[in-house]
Amino acid sequence: MSLLTDLINLNLSDTTEKIIAEYIWVGGSGLDIRSKARTLSGPVDSPQQLPKWNYDGSSTGQAPGEDSEVILYPQAIFRDPFRRGKNILVMCDAYTPAGEPIPTNKRYNAAKIFSHPDVIAEEPWYGLEQEYTLLQKDVKWPVGWPLGGYPGPQGPYYCGVGVDKAFGRDVVDAHYKACLYAGINISGINGEVMPGQWEFQVGPSVGISAGDELWVARYILERITEIAGVVLSFDPKPIEGDWNGAGAHTNYSTKSMRNDGGYKVIKKAIEKLGLRHKEHIAAYGAGNERRLTGKHETADINTFKWGVANRGASIRVGRETEKNGKGYFEDRRPASNMDPYVVTSMIAETTILWKP
């Protein structure tokens, strides 16, 4: 194994100018992450310098077998924490050979919204809280849980410390450092209320970059759990019963909200979100009805309400924002399996562009 490890950790810059680029894209389910690698003649500074590439869309549920070619357009570059050196990770979106975005390309419409002059002027900031659950490989049961049984009730696990409270911290810390290395604006991690469940935060990130960064952070986490031999789950309610679900709370502000008098803008934005509650819920992740029950720090899926410091609300405003009269708010409705391109752009569209 030592020879294999040595080969994996070879520093290519000692012998060649060539680098490896790992092209990443979202597969046909809307949550599966795919990737493949290619050799480039030398380092690159921007995605515009990278060649387009293709893949077999019939094997990812994104094209028929008789016309299976799908084209990858490079959109964002990150340092590769696995190969290191000058090697890169490349976030891509997918198009037909004729240049049309395929149906599962959610980045395309998001980019159109974020390139609207009114949205650019408001400079939307996002902080995305990605919750997830680590499962034992062969039984698909949370790490740290007894096989076929349950741990003690919730209470000691949130931000907990100790062998009987925190399960999988090595994976979590490896992911944290790998994201920082990659250039992702990861801002923190913590253990969650349900044992075996964790959270990382990405942001503040502006516009389309929030989606790019969260997808690549998910990719890195998938790779690390692959190495660690555990299964990564974004199921919004992985264990039924008196256990917290998994969400992707989305913190949001615009320039007008961050400026003096912004609290009035925040309340107007929340009012607009309430008017489009059903449309947002429909786009906020599959299986969310199992999570948004009105229990376990959620509002019922059919009810829209907001409040200051209320974790049982659809939208939570922080005490500091209320006190300062400006700041941000948190949309607590998105599920852990949401598409960040869809959620971030929809919030911007509703609060900035939509006229009720």
Estimate percent helicity. 25-40%
Approximately what portion of the residues adopt beta-strand conformation?
15-25%
Can you write the helix and strand succession as a string?
HEEEEEHHEHEEHEEHHHEEHEH
Structure classification: alpha+beta
Low-confidence stretches: none
Number of strands: 13
Q: Give the terminus-to-terminus CA distance.
A: 63 Å
What is the averaged pLDDT score? Answer: 96
Oligomer: single chain
Family: Belongs to the glutamine synthetase family.
Domain GS beta-grasp: 19-99
Region (Disordered): 40-64
Keywords: ATP-binding, Cytoplasm, Ligase, Nucleotide-binding
Summary of the model, kept short:
Keywords: ATP-binding, Cytoplasm, Ligase, Nucleotide-binding. The protein is α+β, with helices and mostly antiparallel strands and about 350 residues long. The protein has helices spanning about 1-10, 105-115, 115-120, 170-180, 210-230, 255-260, 260-275, 275-285, 320-325, 340-355; strands at about 20-25, 35-40, 55, 70-80, 90-95, 125-135, 185-190, 195-205, 230-235, 250-255, 305-310, 315, 330.
Detailed description of the structure:
There is one protein chain. The chain has 356 residues and is of the alpha+beta class. 29% of the residues lie in helices and 24% in strands. It has ten helices and 13 strands. The protein has helices spanning 2-8, 106-114, 117-122, 169-182, 208-228, 255-258, 262-275, 277-283, 319-324, 340-353, and strands at 19-26, 33-40, 53-56, 69-79, 88-95, 125-136, 186-191, 197-206, 230-233, 250-253, 306-308, 315-317, 329-331. Strands 6, 7, 8, 9, 10, 11, 12 and 13 form an eight-stranded mixed sheet that branches. The protein has a five-stranded mixed sheet with strand order 2-1-5-4-3, covered by helices on one side. A hairpin with a 6-residue loop joins β1 (19-26) and β2 (33-40). α2 packs parallel to α10, α5 runs antiparallel to α10 (340-353) and α7 crosses α10. It is globular. The mean pLDDT is 96.
